[in-house]
């Protein structure tokens, strides 16, 4: 499994290119901007993009989703709670009448010989999700190194995000690598032991 991180857009949100090296089947997670840069990185890897997956609906994570998906003929996935919300901070309604892939708890997607599992983690937004594949946990804006996502935006709730993290993410193995939507990677063990918000 190969993972490439690209900080994109004005907020330097982490976009991840996740590729099965044998089949080259790939998911692009949170393409928040700079579509040309993402496409160039994908093409350098000779990747076969099957999915564009969104951890939540904020524009800094979705800004290039339509362009990347259309370029590769890939399916876009998002939780329905965020797909149907359309204030200015959220994705444009042009993406879907409904999500092409509805990302609900337990949904599994194949990337070659690997399985990517969706975990619903609301709290930063009502439809926030995380993705787990081969000990790698992509958390969007739910969990960061030493912090958690904001809850003062539309759909945010402090109790809900803490519940999501404690019940669904902190129960994963200690050595699970956390790849957040902004900033550096961390581990479940490090956050369980030292994150002041938990």
Description:
This protein has helices at residues 35-44, 59-62, 65-72, 80-83, 158-169, 188-194, and strands spanning 2-8, 13-19, 25-29, 48-53, 75-78, 101-102, 108-111, 114-120, 129-133, 136-140, 143-144, 147-148, 177-180, 186-187. By secondary structure, the chain is of the alpha/beta class. It has a single domain, classed as Metallo-beta-lactamase, Chain A (4-Layer Sandwich), CATH 3.60.15. The strands form 3 sheets. The protein has a 6-stranded mixed β-sheet with strand order 1-2-3-4-5-6. The model is unreliable at 86-90 and 92-98 (pLDDT under 50).
Structural shape: globular
| Rg, Å, rounded | 15 Å
Overall number of domains: 1
Structural class designation = alpha/beta
Q: Provide the CATH top-level class.
A: Alpha Beta
Percent in strands: 25-35%
The helix content, as a percent range, equals 10-25%
The strand order across the widest sheet is 1-2-3-4-5-6
CATH architecture label name: 4-Layer Sandwich
Largest sheet at a glance? Answer: 6 strands, mixed
Distance between the termini: 30 Å
Mean pLDDT: 92
Count the E strands: 14
The number of helices is 6
Element order: H for helix, E for strand: EEEHEHHEHEEEEEEEHEEH
The CATH topology corresponds to: Metallo-beta-lactamase, Chain A
List low-confidence stretches: 86-90, 92-98
């Amino acid at each position: 499994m190969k993972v490439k991180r690209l900080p994109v857009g004005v907020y330097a949100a982490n976009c991840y290119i996740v590729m099965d090296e044998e089949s080259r089947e790939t998911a692009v997670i949170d393409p928040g901007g700079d579509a040309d840069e993402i496409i160039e990185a994908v093409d350098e890897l000779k990747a076969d993009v099957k999915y564009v997956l969104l951890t939540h609906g904020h524009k800094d994570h979705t800004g290039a989703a339509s362009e990347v998906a259309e370029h590769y003929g890939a399916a876009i996935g998002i939780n329905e709670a965020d797909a149907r919300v359309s204030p200015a901070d959220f994705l444009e309604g042009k993406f879907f009448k409904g999500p092409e892939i509805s990302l609900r708890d337990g949904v599994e997607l194949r990337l070659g010989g690997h399985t990517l599992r969706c975990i619903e983690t609301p709290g930063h937004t009502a439809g926030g999700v995380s993705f787990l594949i081969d000990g790698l946990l992509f958390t969007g804006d739910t969990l960061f190194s030493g912090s958690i996502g904001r809850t003062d935006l539309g759909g945010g709730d402090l109790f809900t995000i803490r519940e999501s993290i404690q019940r669904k993410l902190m129960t994963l193995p200690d050595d699970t690598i956390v790849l957040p939507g902004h900033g550096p990677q961390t581990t479940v063990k490090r956050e369980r032991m030292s994150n002041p918000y938990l």
